[in-house]
Write a structure and sequence with these properties.
mainly alpha, 3 helices
Amino acid sequence: MSTDAAPDHPHLADRLPADAYWQLIRTLRLTLPPPATDSPDDLARRDHAAIARIAALAPANAAEPSSPRSSSPPRSSGRTA
């Protein structure tokens, strides 16, 4: 079985407006360290891996919380009235 198989989800470029995708890739390429080689394939792999990690941080839908919520009550300031 090949580990280079394409993911079964649509490419991000197909889901974002062209300007947003261009800006995302530009920002990534300016901030990420260079890939292992100068190969265009390695550059694309690095970019896609970074995009996937960023996308995983977003909630899947409106019902999913965007951050873990604490179940503990709020802390008091320690002062008494």
